[in-house]
Amino acid sequence: MGDVIRLATLEDAVVVHDVSIRGYKPLKDMDIKFVGATADLATVEENIRRNANYVLERDGRIIATVTVAFPWALGERSIQPYPFIWWFAVDPDFKRQGVGTALLDYVEEQVLVAQIKAPAVYLATATRHPWLVSIYEHRGYVGFYEHEYEGDTIIFLRKVLDESLFAELGNVDVLVNSK
To answer: Which stretches make up the N-acetyltransferase domain (predicted)?
Structure first.
């Protein structure tokens, strides 16, 4: 049957919750307070209802998940006018097998570029995590903003997906809701 990437449904919430909790366990063990590490089932269901939550299935089993939140869904929390990638987790049984790369590649290329026509995308992670910042930088993300959250320095990184459209729209480097 192979790998299938699709939008999650509410029927997937229990499995998405399990993958998230197990995938985020190393961050929870480091006391990094990300929603994916501590979310309850109701929070997962709300995420699926409110955002574009993609899952990667292998032979019918959900083994990875990532959410794309759009500025209108983030409201005051949106600091850029671009989609925001978050709540990205891979089942620990499938780590280091290219599963996360395949899911992120699909979301960036097939959804954000081909369908949404997004000029850029951004995400955030804790600077003290030993490898996440460098993984995202390797994927072409560049840091543009840092702030403190729950005792951690959070870095926001952006990836330009369409150089000409990004330039045409004025290289939005300002924080939309900075106060």
So the answer is: 3-162
Could you tell me if 173 and 160 are in contact, meaning their C-beta atoms sit under 8 angstroms apart? no
Strand 61-69 and strand 84-90: pairing?
antiparallel
Structure tokens at 29: 């063990």
pTM flag (> 0.70): yes
Rounded to 5°, angle at Cα 109 from 52 and 87: 35
C-alpha to C-alpha distance for 168 and 165, rounded to whole angstroms: 5
Instruction: Report pLDDT for 32.
Output: 64
Would you say residue 150 has pLDDT above 80? no
Where do the domains of the chain lie, and which CATH numbers do they carry? 3-170 (3.40.630.30)
CA 138 to centroid of chain Cα atoms: 16
Helices 41-50 and 13-23: crossing angle, nearest 10°? 110
